[in-house]
User: Fold this.
Amino acid sequence: MVGSPERVSDEGQAVAGVAAAYSAFAERRPALYDAMFTLNVDLRFASQETPVDLARGFAELTETLRPFAGDDDLETFTETFWAGLHGLVTLMRSGRLRRAEQQRRLALLVDLVCRAR
Assistant:
């Protein structure tokens, strides 16, 4: 178990905050979001060549998710959450998912991640 109900709630709120901020950024800054997350780039991820700012951002996300990873590899757990979040945002923005249900989908993703352990 992660800890007290209050701690789980606080940690879950942090994950929900990440999901909300990520989704809001995609809506507010669509061109920048696309440049950062959908266009082909020559950046190396998950390697010694990863730019420092990218590694720091991933590290922050990893620490937010740490309480829920349990025995899973933390980096893989984090990549899976990010991939789910990115997929939901990208599919909604492209009209492949119903926009009206986006907040519910984000809440479901957060719930699945937070109750994983």
Notes: Residues 1-5 have pLDDT under 50 and may be disordered. The longest helix spans residues 5-28. Residues 37 and 86 are 8 Å apart (CA to CA). Residues 10-115 form one domain.
